[in-house]
Amino acid sequence: MATKIRLRRIGARNNPFYRLVVADSRFATTGRYLEVLGWYDPKKAEKNFSVKVDRVDYWLGVGAQMSATTKSLIKKARAGEGVPPGAAQSAKLVVEAPVVEDVPVEVAAEEAVAEVVETAVEVPAEVAVEEVPAEEAPEKQES
Question: Does residue 62 have a pLDDT over 70?
Fold first, then answer.
């Protein structure tokens, strides 16, 4: 089996995005693959790719061949450019929960609920709610 390390396009029209994959040379470019080794986003300016260099070394050791673009990306990854493998492709908003030390989780949750209840807006009880009768479904006519 002749394996190749090449790019596989997965992006939408006018929005290219590629995965760096190991595939049998007989498989279609957009077809089956053996392993995903990274990704490449040509529309981004900086840090637009990630490569698992250790897995690339393994596949090169068992005889895989690289395409020209793949060879360029791997060369850059070895130089320390790109995003480290396993890192997110873009920055994500992280919301941190407040740290409560030496307090059981149930108590911390109850305190959080109490804070929300204290800040809630109270609705006066005198506000009348109108009851609207539900419309009755028409009877089915049997033929």
Answer: yes
Q: Can you list the domains of the chain with their CATH numbers?
A: 3-78 (3.30.1320.10)
Summarised one tens digit per residue, pLDDT across range 64-101 is: 999 999 999 999 888 888 787 766 555 444 445 555 56
Amino acid found at 122: E
Question: What is the DSSP-derived secondary structure letter of residue 62?
Answer: T
Q: Are 41 and 17 in contact (CB under 8 A)?
A: yes
Q: Which helix H or strand E contains 11, and what residues bound it?
A: none
The sign of the dihedral angle between the CA atoms of 16, 20, 26, 31 is negative
Two structure tokens written together for 11: 């992006």
- β 35-40/18-24 pair status: antiparallel
d(CA 1, CA 8): 19
Closest CA to 71 of 45, 88, 49: 49
Alpha-carbon distances, residue 105 vs 99, 116, 118 (angstroms): 11, 17, 20
- Quote the crossing angle between the two packed helices 68-78 and 53-61, to the nearest 10°: 130
Q: Are 43 and 15 in contact (CB under 8 A)?
A: yes
